[in-house]
């Protein structure tokens, strides 16, 4: 199995997000692929279909076959509800056909690398509000710092109720969950780069290595060692 990602330019939208490709080698065994939560929604070409992947609260197993390739476009904060016309919370934990959530004509993909063109068509139709996108980006940055929900709300001039509503609309869940997912991903990147688990836990914002282990088990279903082996 392999994975790679790079900057993706969507016509009319500039530096839009991250494009990625996930492939399974021909020698791999058919079966589910475990996908870790990352606090983002994606547009994908998966097994010949355009698919929207909602944000995940915990790891999910996605069916796959040997030799299959999935193309994806990770959407920036706040972009998904603008493009698709539905709050991100309605897609949390789901994988649905793009045609089921948008009125933009979507044909069976014959060239998966044209995915940014599909995103561009959605962008033109949606004409996202720049102020909304700035708010979503700012909330996402705050979640990455580990700030408490009340602090995030105060810093953005929002009530905690309004913060919950906006976070669910932009990300698919509240700031507390988004923060835990970002912290998990930060620790995972550090550990996979060779940082000892105790140090990775401290740098990512966990109280100690035991806290990291509990959260990794909760979010991924396995131990930190299993994820970094």
UniProtKB/TrEMBL annotation:
This is AraC-like DNA-binding protein. Residues 129-229 form the HTH araC/xylS-type domain. PROSITE patterns: HTH_ARAC_FAMILY_2 (PS01124). GO terms for molecular function: DNA-binding transcription factor activity; sequence-specific DNA binding. Keywords: DNA-binding, Transcription, Transcription regulation. InterPro entries: AraC_XylS_family_regulators, DUF6597, HTH_AraC. PANTHER family: BLL1074 PROTEIN, HTH-TYPE TRANSCRIPTIONAL ACTIVATOR RHAS-RELATED. It comes from the Bacteria. Gene3D superfamilies: Homeodomain-like. It comes from Prauserella sediminis.
């Amino acid at each position: 199995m392999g994975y790679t990602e790079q900057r993706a330019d969507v016509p009319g939208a500039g530096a839009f997000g991250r494009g990625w490709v996930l492939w399974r080698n021909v020698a791999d065994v058919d079966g589910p692929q475990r996908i870790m939560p990352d606090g983002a929604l994606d547009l994908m070409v998966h097994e010949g279909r355009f698919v929207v992947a909602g944000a995940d609260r915990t790891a999910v197993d996605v069916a796959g076959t040997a030799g299959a390739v999935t193309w994806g476009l990770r959407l920036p904060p706040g972009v998904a509800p603008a493009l698709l016309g539905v709050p991100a919370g309605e897609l949390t934990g789901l994988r649905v056909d793009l045609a089921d959530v948008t009125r933009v004509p979507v044909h069976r993909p014959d060239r998966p690398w044209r995915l940014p063109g599909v995103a561009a068509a959605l962008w033109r139709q949606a004409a996202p509000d720049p102020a909304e996108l700035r708010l979503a980006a700012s909330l996402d940055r705050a979640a990455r710092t580990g700030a408490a929900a009340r602090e995030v709300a105060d810093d953005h001039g929002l009530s905690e109720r309004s913060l919950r509503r906006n976070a669910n609309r932009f990300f698919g869940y509240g700031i507390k969950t988004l923060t835990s997912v970002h912290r998990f991903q930060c620790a995972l990147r550090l550990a996979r780069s060779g940082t000892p688990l105790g140090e990775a836990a401290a740098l990512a914002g966990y109280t100690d290595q035991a806290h990291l282990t509990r959260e990794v088990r909760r979010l991924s279903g396995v131990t930190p060692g299993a994820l970094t082996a």
